[in-house]
Design a protein that fits this description.
The longest helix has 17 residues. Strand 3 and strand 4 form a beta hairpin. A 7-stranded mixed β-sheet has the order 1-2-3-4-5-7-6, with helices on both faces. It has one domain: 3-Layer(aba) Sandwich (Aminopeptidase), CATH 3.40.630. The radius of gyration is 15 Å and the shape is globular. It contains 4 helices and 7 strands. Helices cover 29% and strands 29% of the residues.
């Protein structure tokens, strides 16, 4: 997308913190506490986590996303969120493509993610499926959960 740019970092920005707070609030509102797996600011600043921000033409943050290292071969997509105003413009698709490339260039073989099973998460699931993610079982610290869906994408060239 010509009218946006993706930068590394951004957790120090108030608008980014606002996007992440909204993300956490919606996760808590749509899932039981034991099924909320979104990362907070401290976790997003942690080791093995890389974070990106999408800025619009005016420099305002309109989307965020992160990769968390699971192993030498696997990374997990975390905290992917687009502002309500930016939805439907291809911002999420551009960010997801960027994150897939970042995983590939980071030497990972597989990119994994967990998202909700409720209808609220259907647009996210469609986005991931359009980009080649396939549904799989739990991974890492996750276990079977009726509120979660798990996806996998092979990112090797």
């Amino acid at each position: 997308m010509a009218d946006v740019r993706i930068i590394t970092g951004g957790l120090e920005r108030a608008d980014v913190r606002g996007i992440l707070a909204e993300h956490l609030d919606e996760m808590v509102a749509t899932s039981p506490p034991e099924s909320v797996h979104a990362l907070d600011l401290d976790a997003l600043r942690g080791p093995g986590v890389s974070f990106w921000t999408v800025l619009d033409a005016d420099g305002a943050a309109i989307a965020v996303g992160a990769l968390a290292e699971l192993s030498d071969t696997d990374a997990e997509l975390k905290s992917m969120r687009t502002t309500t105003a930016a939805r439907g413009r291809g911002v999420a698709a551009s960010l997801l493509a960027h994150l897939i490339e970042a995983a590939r260039h980071g030497g990972y073989a597989r990119l994994r993610l967990e998202t909700g099973s409720d209808d609220f998460f259907a647009p996210a699931r469609r986005l991931y499926e359009r980009h080649g993610f396939v549904e799989t079982g739990p991974f890492g610290r996750y276990s079977e959960d009726p509120y979660s869906r798990f996806y996998l994408l092979d990112v090797r060239d």
